[in-house]
Each structure stands twice: as C-alpha cells, then as structure tokens.
Amino acid sequence: MALRLGDLAPDFQADTTAGPISFHEWKRGSWTVLFSHPRDFTPVCTTELARAASLKPEFDRRNTRLLGLSVDSVESHEQWLEDIAELTGQRVNFPIVADADRSVALRYDMIHPNVSDTFTVRSVFIIGPDHRIKATATYPASTGRSFDEILRVLDALQLAADYAVATPVDWRSGDEVVIAPTVSEEDARRKFPKGYEARKPWFRVTPPPDR
Ligand code: BEZ
C-alpha cells in the first residue's frame, strides 16, 4: 500500500555516493527530503540535482538533509555526478542512494507500473525528525520539480510543527498565517501575543509567529 501522511518512513540500508547508510540512523534528529530520479545520465534529473545542491545551505539552515535516489549503481552515479559538475558547474554535495535492486523504490512506491516497470517516477518525501512522513509529491519523468517549492513547503511544515498555525494559499515565509480553527479564543490570546484579527469567528490571521 502506498505510504500516507503520518506513516513511519520505512527504514532501509543502502549504498550511496557517500558510503553505506542506515536511513533512520543517518537522518537522526533532522528533517529529510528523499527524492527519486528515473535514472542516471538524464537531463531533467541533472538540472534538479544541480539546483538542489546549490540550495544545500538553505536546507542546512532548516536542519534538513537531502537524499537523492536512482535505480543505478554507485559507480554509475559517480560518473554521472562528474558529468553534472562539468555541465552545470555544481558539485552534488549530498548522497545519492544506489537502489539498483529497486528495494527502496518499491518500499516507497516510487515505481508506478502504468508509467514504467523499471524506472522510478519523480517522488518527493518530506520526512520529519520523528521519521514520520509530513508531505509527498509525485511528478512524471517529463516534469522537473521546483526546489524553491520544496523549501516553501518545508517552511510551512516547520512553522505548523512549532505553532498551532496553518499557511494560506501561496504563503511565503514572513507572511501572515492562519490560526488553526481548533484553537480556542483563550488559547489564541495566550499563544499569539502579537495579536490576531478575526475576519470571521472561524477565520483568524496573525503575524508570523517566528519573527
Ligand atoms: C530526464 O531526467 O531528463 C528524463 C528522465 C526520464 C525520461 C525523460 C526525461
């Protein structure tokens, strides 16, 4: 069965371009973005890996580790990473899982047989420090992902984890947020000392609580 929000992200042992890892041990205490690539030596994946690598300081700032995955060997990944550096000027500075036997891809439901029996789709799993799945996204091989969007979602998840808030449409870090409808008036006054505006009794907004 497909993994759902709130599920425990399956643990696994795998070879990566940074050596063998035991997933839960490797990510201990951190958020993680685990994302799959259809295969090595592909152009869209190349642009994604270079962009993710260039944003690594932003992920670090959010206590978040990046972990790529593709169903090829470490040797193949290493040759591909050389090509990526040559093509984009960017070295990939996080590990890529070598999932040649597809065991991780199958556990994370990254292979969608109506698309391909062999290669993964572009899956994204955002996993919390508690190893629980907080957000997922799935794109076809033909569509490159936006790592700015992944950072935006991470900001929203981390804010919601720290405060009883939700983030409205097109929210960006620093924008006003919505107070969860489950929070009572009394709790809202206590939790949001900057105050809040009740546009309706059920629609309350407050300045960013983390600023
Ligand atoms: C790519 O990453 O460029 C790609 C991979 C598989 C199919 C089509 C494009």
CATH-defined architecture of the largest domain: 3-Layer(aba) Sandwich
Q: Number of helix segments? A: 7
State the end-to-end distance: 40 Å
Low-confidence stretches: none
**Major sheet details:** 5 strands, mixed
Gyration radius, rounded: 19 Å
Q: Helical amount among residues, as a percent range?
A: 25-40%
Query: What percent of residues are in strands?
Result: 15-25%
Can you say what the CATH homologous superfamily of the largest domain is? Answer: Glutaredoxin
What's the β-strand tally?
Answer: 11
SSE string? EEHEHHEHEHEEHEEHEE
Summarize the helices and strands and which ones pair or pack.
Elements: E1 13-14, E2 21-22, H1 23-26, E3 31-37, H2 43-54, H3 56-61, E4 64-70, H4 74-88, E5 96-98, H5 103-107, E6 122-127, E7 133-139, H6 147-162, E8 165-166, E9 177-179, H7 185-191, E10 197-200, E11 203-206
Parallel strand pairs: 3-4, 4-5
Antiparallel strand pairs: 1-2, 3-6, 6-7, 8-9, 9-11, 10-11
The chain binds benzoic acid (BEZ).
